[in-house]
Design goal:
The structure holds 2 protein chains of 2 kinds. Chain A is α/β, with parallel strands linked by helices. Chain A contains 10 helices and 17 strands. Chain B is of the alpha/beta class. In chain B, 19% of the residues lie in helices and 35% in strands. In chain B, strand 9, helix 2 (109-120) and strand 10 form a beta-alpha-beta unit. The longest helix of chain B is centred in the middle third of the chain and has 12 residues, at 109-120. At the A-B interface, strand 5, strand 6 and helix 8 of A face loops of B. The complex binds flavin-adenine dinucleotide (FAD), flavin mononucleotide and FE2/S2 (inorganic) cluster.
Chain lengths: 307, 249
């Protein structure tokens, strides 16, 4: 059985990864699971200088979901490379930093430095954070701005480049297609959906930033649909994420077209879930006599109900 | 995994005592456990509760029923629960000193286990136990038995003395010397308690802000401090009271 996944020149040993922002830099997570047992770990969105993130309430639960307004709090590039990276390397993790600069220049600089840094397996460019004023999602919802950024980032990024798309657009597959044309190696879909909570007692938005990002099982059907649409348009691998909490969820994403998957919000709830699901996936492959993930990847596209 | 060994016992209006058998580390006073309310996805996040007491692998917590998760929890039957913990950074347990403890409502919970350990370390304990009114008072005798000096106060005087916790603290701090003030309760109460200590007495507070993961992954629980944002769950929940920027909490 071969459950490895190819992303450009990178080979993940299995398709189960943990998503950016819900696993920190792996330090606390490593107390619960062996990080080297994951396909990869996506670390918290990075900027050049450290960022404090947003003030006020940053998170609130919704039915089977979470709204967050963290605002990309992170330790900054230097501390990431000096303090966080060595720990992850020691743990044998496959490390994919999530790059979330505020300007085109910042993103280019981050990708240039990171892709030349020992121990970085690939870079995930986050054009889809809904929780910051400048940059963030703006890069991911205007196709012209998106194109300019991805072109420039591609030029300076020598390692595999993954583009993490915003679902807050009319047709997400246009962005995936464009990223592929520019030479991205992989697509991550999706980041959080824009949402909002009104505090009825205070008669005002719950979050200071007003809007926030919705994640968790509540968004899963929306995320599956996004991956399904992207798969119809591109040949590069897609990492599917959004609300995954069970083996069946993973299979849905794979059958919709995902080559690998990420677990975000549910890692926060159950830190050992990613490793448990990796084991369950292997058992499933054995049971169903599946030799390679490609046997079921995107299979839902072939079986049209009307056939 | 943890086993809820008794049905939740009602101990005062809206407050319940829950006893779990948890194999694992012995908790430090001020630490919390993080409970998954059910095996489904609603409620989704775990709910954090301070350790109220611990003896021989039995962890006791006090749950105030306030919303969806706590309502479901206090109606639970005995059985297995998915619990992570003990978690977080606890209180500093002094030795052979004179200490002041002040709790407001369910914020008294972590102070019981703290008082127990402080007593073992031969501290002289003055305990101010505050509640809104008599119907909310819980475990009065258990608290009293640990304190060298015990003051029960309620907002309306229906039990103990009619006073706010902070009034009582102002009086005590004004008339005696203490080596440490430990406090847990509503933010307004804690910030006033810190102001009263006016940097003469070291203060440790336990914050109870909204947690996401409770284990340091998500930065959803930040509290603003003199040294920047800190994570309530992993850098706390116990903080040096003078380090917190109370106007932002
Ligand atoms: C470190 C820590 C220790 C705690 N210890 C205890 C304890 O010993 N006993 C106890 O009863 N409670 C304790 N709490 C608070 C408890 O976790 C919350 O009351 C609980 O999570 C609410 O869940 P719910 O589903 O019932 O409420 P929800 O339905 O989620 O919310 C109902 C209401 O409660 C408010 N609320 C939600 N979470 C919190 C919170 N963390 N703090 C204050 N208000 C909140 C909401 O804003 C809302 O108004 C502690 C919290 C923390 C962070
Ligand atoms: C608390 C939190 C922080 C997040 N931070 C980031 C981030 O820094 N960069 C990023 O690309 N996505 C971030 N995300 C989005 C997740 O990586 C993921 O795309 C999204 O939550 C959907 O997956 P899920 O439903 O499994 O969580 C964050 C999500 C949450 C809940
Ligand atoms: S609640 Fe997630 S880091 Fe504290």
């Amino acid at each position: 059985m071969d459950i490895s996944v190819k992303i450009g020149s990178l080979v993940l040993k299995n398709p189960i990864t943990v998503a950016s922002g819900t696993a920190g830099y792996g330090e606390e997570l490593s107390q619960f699971i062996d990080l080297s047992g994951l396909g990869a770990i996506f670390t918290k969105g990075l900027s050049l200088a450290p960022r404090k993130g947003n003030s006020g309430s940053r998170m609130i639960e919704t039915p089977s979901g979470v709204l967050n307004s963290i605002g990309l709090e992170n330790v900054g590039l230097k501390k990431f490379i000096d303090d966080k990276l060595p720990f992850l390397i020691k743990k044998g993790a496959v490390i994919i930093p999530n790059v979330a600069g505020h300007s085109e220049e910042e993103n280019i600089e981050l990708c240039r430095i990171l892709s030349a840094t020992e121990g970085i397996a690939a870079i995930e460019l986050n054009v889809s954070c809904p929780n910051v004023d400048e940059g963030g999602m703006a890069f991911g919802i205007d196709l012209n701005i998106f194109t300019k950024l991805v072109e420039k980032v591609r030029r300076v990024t020598s390692c595999p480049l993954i583009i993490k798309l915003s679902p807050n657009v009319t047709d997400i597959s246009l962005f995936a297609k464009r990223a592929e044309e520019i030479g991205a190696d992989c697509i991550s879909a999706v980041n959080t959906f824009l949402g909002m909570k009104i505090d009825v007692k205070r008669r005002q938005p719950h979050f200071l930033n007003r809007v926030a990002g919705l994640s968790g099982p509540a968004i899963r059907p929306l995320a599956i649909r996004s991956v399904f649409q992207i798969f119809e348009k591109v040949r590069i691998p897609v990492i599917g994420l959004g609300g995954i909490s069970t083996l069946e969820d993973i299979l849905e994403f794979i059958m919709a077209g995902a080559a690998a998957i990420s677990i975000g919000t549910m890692t926060m709830v159950q830190p050992d879930l990613p490793i448990k699901l990796a084991e369950e996936l292997i058992n499933y492959f054995e049971r169903e006599n599946i030799k390679n993930i490609s046997e079921i990847k995107g299979i839902a596209h072939k079986k049209n109900r009307r056939d | 995994m943890a086993l809820l060994i008794n049905k939740p016992e009602k101990i005062s209006k809206d407050h319940y005592l829950l006893r779990f058998n948890i194999h694992g580390k012995i908790p430090l006073p001020g630490q919390f456990i993080n409970i998954k309310i059910n095996s489904g996805t609603d409620p989704l996040l775990r709910r954090p509760f301070s350790v109220f007491n611990y003896t021989d692998s039995i962890t006791e917590i006090i749950v105030r029923s306030v919303g969806k998760g706590t309502k479901e929890l206090v109606c639970a039957g005995c059985g297995e629960f998915d619990v992570i913990g003990p978690l977080g950074k606890g209180f500093t347990v002094l030795k052979n000193r004179k200490v002041l403890l002040a709790g407001g409502g369910v914020g008294n919970a972590p102070l019981y286990y703290l008082a127990k350990q402080l007593k073992e370390q031969k501290n002289h304990i003055t305990f101010v136990c505050g509640f809104r009114s008599e119907e909310y008072v819980f475990c009065r005798d258990r608290y009293k038995s640990l304190a060298d000096e015990f003051h029960l106060v309620t907002d309306n005087g229906s039990a103990g003395e009619k006073a706010y916790v902070t009034d009582k603290l102002a009086h005590l701090i004004g008339t005696d010397d203490y080596d440490m003030l430990y406090t847990c309760g509503p933010d307004a109460m804690m910030s006033k308690a810190v102001a009263l200590s006016s940097k003469r007495i070291p203060v440790e507070v336990s914050v109870e802000n909204y947690f996401g993961c409770g284990i340091g992954f998500c930065a959803g629980c930040t509290v603003d401090t003199l040294h920047g944002f800190k994570r309530g769950c992993a850098d706390g929940p116990v903080f040096d009271g003078n380090e917190l920027l109370w106007e932002n909490i």
